[in-house]
Amino acid sequence: MRFVKGPVKRVKRPVKRRYAALAGAVAVGACAAGLLTIGPYGPGGDASRPGPGSLTAQSRDRTGTGAGSGTDEVAGGTGADPLRAARRAVDKAPQDPVVWSELGQALIERARTTLDSGRLDAAGKALRRSLDLKRTGNYAATTGMGQLADARHEFGTGRKWGLRSTRMAPDRAAGYGVLADAEIQLGHYRAARTAVQRMLDLKPTAAAYSRAAYDLETHGRNRDAAVALRRAVEAAQTPDETAFAESRMGELAWSRGELKSAGRHFERALDAVHGHPYSLAGRARLQAARGHRAQALRTYGRLVERTPLPQFLLEAAELRGSRPGGRDRKALAALKAQARMLRADGGPVDPHLALYEADHGRPATAVAMMRREWKRSHGVIVADALGWALHRAGRDAEALRYAEAAARTGWKNALFHYHRGVIEHRLGRHAAGDRHLRRALRLNPHFSPLHAPRAVRLLHRSGGPATGDGDRR
User: Fold this and answer.
1) Backbone angles phi, psi at 177, to 5 degrees
2) H-helix or E-strand containing 353?
3) Distance (Å, rounded) from C-alpha 423 to C-alpha 179?
4) For residues 304 and 342, is the Cβ–Cβ distance under 8 A?
5) Cα–Cα distance between 283 and 200 in angstroms, integer?
6) pTM beyond 0.85
């Protein structure tokens, strides 16, 4: 794909070059009506599986399918509410399969924006109703079912619906978004890139550019990822799309240790959507990195009270635990409860829960959780979490194999490098360990309030320099 430099509206027709060859490129991630969450190690990774224990009962949708029931706060705070409009349409035409599929997709989008997983059950009911009314050729409901599966992190199922959608209508973009989200989280990176490229050729929207950015970042092409995200901001049609793209730009800047830039993007996201959860988490990380620990803990406190996702709980707990004697008992108890429910549920594993078990709970449990997830997905995030769990369980030779697998795409991820550096040290490979620890600190010296200081101490003990490029405020 030829990446034009003018505004997105100047793109008048599909272009056929692969975006992998671009000077300012384009490629996958949690995006408008795509994955529900932004993941643990930066954009697009796995996050909480919506379902039991992922959100508080108080935050769940209480309106069933939502047809004609109550009112909803508009996520962006202004403008028309697609969810409310979809509910009114269902009331007026309850036998129309199209309006039911639109309601299902609006519920999925609202769940993605608010991280209110209770809406996903209502979305499933609406989409199944659409399919009952029109069993064949129902493209909107078919893509909606794929979006629902991806939002629940049931990526194998999402892939099946995505393939069904693209076979049904190979010239429509939405199905390729479903397919791309599933393929990248399953670790099928070449297939994901093909799906994103097709999506871009058909319809270069904010959704396509955001997915392009994640694929590029996953493969270590951060500058091209930033260009794609700028395109996503330019192409955004709603406050939610703007907030998503700006927040992702903040995450990308954070991953490079660029605190000022990250802060600007997180604040723009919060201007677009008040209370945008991942941008609030980004703000808290920046507050901690700048030495405003008490302020950061207050921000986390407000965030996890409303949205107790494992990522936010773990970040809050590790910030409090980074000081001697500090222990966030409430956050750790919530993580323990969620991990227990996940083990009983047997569903897709949130790597943050495995990292909690590895570092603060039972490493053997973390290994079992991530081995189960590895059977579902060979993605680099899963490989990294399994490798770290094995290390914490004392199985470093096996852990190194998974740490190497996590590096196969070239993702410039500080936590990945830290994990591998510690494992290499434990195996007596100190030069290699130092190299990865220094790389982690060069990428972002604030990557973790708990682990970044440990990386520095380990480098000091081995006699190597402890810092890289310093603090880029």
Assistant:
1) -65, -45
2) helix 351-360
3) 34
4) no
5) 31
6) no
